[in-house]
Design a protein that fits this description.
Two copies of one chain form a homodimer. Chain A is an alpha/beta fold and 295 residues long. The first copy, chain A, has eight helices and 14 strands. Chain A has helices spanning 13-24, 69-78, 93-107, 121-132, 148-155, 189-198, 249-264, 287-294, and strands at 4-9, 28-34, 47-48, 59-62, 82-85, 110-112, 135-142, 145-146, 160-169, 175-183, 206-211, 222-233, 236-248, 270-272. The two termini of chain A are 24 Å apart. The interface between A and B is large, with 67 and 67 residues. β13 (236-248) of chain A pairs antiparallel with β13 of chain B.
Chain lengths: 295, 295
């Protein structure tokens, strides 16, 4: 079997873990890393600004910020390169799919979109639980763990030098926010606290703001999910399901993107979310092995 | 949208719940029930011995014992009717797939096999967790709940009037067996206890045998699963995952078969386990709705 040649686009938090995960995948070769600005190679890993310098690339893992995903994906799909992203704006995933599907079909490429853990593996669990109990409510509870979006919102406040917003699950999809802030000299804590609590990102959640001298002391990449569904199978109530995980956040995102790179090679041209792809396609084993080991 | 016409084959424990689940599915119509022996209609549900008496049938839900599945499936697939089963002999699922695939492709039909909860929805979770953390160990812990296979093995022992074998999870895929037996008059309990403990079904597990006056007092259809995976995402260890459920056993099996009947109408001719089918295909909603609601 020829190995899948994978490029990692972006070398931030997820990109670094994506490099590790590609190197750990027996059926893949790391073609190199693509960055916006020229940079030194990383050990014997080639770093380039243009993917064409990497020779043949089968799949590009888009580890750049969510807001750049559409543009990046279109660029690579037009070159006939499959793409995988972990685009996480839930409300516009379907629009991204429609847009990328059109481009992918023109060049015979495949895009796997929103392939992280939420959206991503959690979406697969939510769909599975709907198949098991079509009537009922699923609660997705996040954390404890760092919320990137909320942290960025706090960092933008006047007087804030550094920040960390933790998401704390309190059950039934309700979350508490605990915000650690490091302030510039002479800034009044109460003013910052008030500004944070009035921000739309925080105003509907129970929010606590704590001033600390060094935010970096509090940062860890662990995160968690607790999903609960109570529903009805056929006409039988009280069917109870629960999915939990405690994970290194960028490591899991990167692994799911790598598994999705493999899956992209097994789909017809188009754009797919994870719930549109058979689970067996994500695995580095043939169907017979997967069925004998896992079914 | 034309509704899917479904027949329920067999009217035992699972068959009864399958009838309920088909009636609860808005995109399906219950064509009727097929039994081996002639029987009265059930309310306004037609009961027949030959599926041809039910008019057009799109999908047959095979709710008969596992040992009869292959023969039943072949019969209906040859008639061009899709089949769904919850065949549960893990070691021969792949052989069943190969056999039914051949027949299904000849007539353009689809078989969804081993579509219960284990094998079935648990298999999907096992595959998903391998995609999230390819290295590591998954433990599947069953119960507390009744084991059909073990119960049948005990009932076959000399002197046993009725029996119930409960599976109790003790973690890391190890199980305790607690067997409730009702004995015929004059039978020595110690002899029966010894025979059970020596049976290959029980000899490698911690087994307790308890004599009771009426086994039926102890039977409930609840069952449970606790699946645990600790593994490696990329090169990051200690990624922790857990899936739990506490469910009415035949109700869940029947619902998954009904969801699989729907999925069968969306696959190319052939035979499929659940890990070979995209999750979205099991749901009574279009792709856009599923992606907006669940991804």
């Amino acid at each position: 079997m020829e190995k899948i040649r994978v490029a990692v686009v972006g070398y931030g938090n997820i990109g670094k873990y994506a490099v590790s995960a590609v190197l750990a995948a027996k059926d893949m070769v790391l073609a190199g890393v693509v960055r916006r600005e020229p940079d030194d190679d990383i050990g014997d890993i080639k770093v380039v600004t243009d993917i064409k310098e990497l020779g043949t690339v089968d799949v590009a893992l888009l580890c750049s910020p969510t807001r750049t995903i559409e543009e990046e994906a279109v660029k690579y799909l037009k070159m006939g390169i499959n793409t995988v992203d972990s685009y996480d704006i839930h409300s516009t995933i379907y629009e991204l799919k429609l847009m990328l599907e059109k481009v992918a079909k023109e060049t015979g490429a495949v895009a796997v979109i929103s392939a992280g853990w939420d959206p991503g593996s959690d979406s697969v669990v939510r769909a599975l639980l709907e198949a098991c109990a079509p009537k009922g409510i699923t609660y997705t509870n996040f954390g404890p763990g760092m919320s990137m979006g909320h942290t960025v919102a706090v960092k933008a406040k006047e007087g804030v030098k550094n920040a960390l917003s933790m998401t704390i699950p309190v059950g039934t999809s309700i979350h508490r926010r605990i915000v650690y802030v490091e302030l510039n000299d002479g800034v009044n804590f109460s003013d910052v606290e008030k500004a944070i609590k009035q921000d739309p990102y925080f105003s509907s959640d129970e929010t606590h703001v704590i001033q600390v001298s060094d935010v970096n002391e509090y940062i860890d990449k662990g995160h968690g999910v607790n999903m609960v569904r109570k529903g009805v199978s056929g006409q039988t109530d009280n069917q109870l399901f629960e999915f939990n995980m405690k994970i290194n956040n960028p490591a899991l995102t990167a692994q799911i993107m790598v598994s999705s790179a493999r899956a992209s090679k097994r789909q017809a041209p188009g754009a797919y979310t994870m719930i549109e792809i058979p689970m067996v396609d994500f695995l580095d084993m043939d169907k017979e092995t997967a069925i004998r080991r896992l079914v």
